[in-house]
Amino acid sequence: MTRPEAEDEDEKPLDPSIEKVRRKLIRFMGVNLGLLFLALMVVIGALVYKSRTSAPEIAAPAGDIQAPPGQTASEYMEGDIVLPVGARIVSQSISGNRISIDAELAGGERVLFVYDIAGQRLIGRLAIRNR
After folding, report:
1. 3-class secondary-structure state, position 49
2. Which class for 19: exposed (0-12), middle (13-18), buried (19 or more C-beta within 10 A)?
3. Which value, to the nearest 10 degrees, does the dihedral of the CA atoms of residues 30, 33, 37, 43 take?
4. Which helix (H) or strand (E) holds 4?
5. CA dist., res. 37 & res. 97, Å (int)
6. Is 32 helix (H, G, I), strand (E, B) or coil?
7. CA triplet 18, 22, 23: central angle to 5 degrees?
8. Over the stretch 78-122, which tens digit does the pLDDT of each residue have?
9. Rg value, the chain, Cα
10. Do residues 115 and 123 touch, judged by C-beta distance below 8 A?
11. What pTM did the predictor assign?
12. In this structure, what are the phi and psi dihedrals at residue 103, rounded to the nearest 5 degrees?
């Protein structure tokens, strides 16, 4: 490949009007990059601030019953859940102040009992059937 002549390699001075536009574009680019950098620093600062000031929420282990301060577990809650005679508990689940007990009755019928723990009362009885 042939090399261009030496005089083509030298940069020719730009027209003054084009040089003025080029300087404006460089200044515009510098200002925009500065603003972008500033916005990025604000976001990173906010994330660091939030991570340092918010207290981590630590949940109690699943099998651990926590009583309020000054009370023992036996003082906190006590009661009976009465199921029909011959019922066998298949599974149970607790959510907030409600507990659901999946039981199989003496005749083989499956029933879901829903209890309100705070009110210590039965709030629902649902039969589980196959179609």
Report:
1. helix
2. exposed
3. 140
4. none
5. 50
6. helix
7. 120
8. 667 777 888 888 888 888 888 888 888 888 888 888 888 878 888
9. 37
10. yes
11. 0.41
12. -125, 150
